[in-house]
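hiii, so i know i said id send this last week but things got crazy w the move. better late than never?? heres the sequnce for the chain we talked about at the cafe, plus the structure i predicted for it. fair warning i was half asleep when i ran it
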Amino acid sequence: MAMANDRLYISVIGAGVADARAQELASEIGRRIAGAGAVLVCGGMGGVMEAACRGAREAGGSTLGILPGLDRGEGNPYLDFTVLTGIGHARNLAVASSGDAVIAVGGEFGTLSEIGLARKTGRPVILLDSWQIRRDGALPAGVIEAASPGDAVKQALRLAVAGRS
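okay and structure toks below
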């Protein structure tokens, strides 16, 4: 049996209220993360987070939600494990830094903050239908745009493994 430290952790970030397309993308990402044997980490609430967890659980994977409050009941129903923080949006740092890589699906300003925090803590970020982030016309180092859920997970796994080397 693999130890917890041996498994890859992939954070999935996005809006707590998301449209059908974002939820569909997130669910497929969750399935693919589970299929790779990685742990899905998220903020534990609805929208993209819930859809990603649902996909992971349907595929037999493990999910970890880092909740903003102090009530486990506020988390989505597809969480295997929860961390209660009581720190509101400040929990974005824990979500961003807990993954070996971060996949952003769509998103609002909370997602943008997590993207920035992920890069600040050295985590690679894969964008799928998410923020358009450019500096001098180019993507910043450590930020990749993906064309599909499969591409997003493939890049996240590759970068997560490389980051552990």
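btw The mean pLDDT is 96. thought thatd interest u
miss u guys!!
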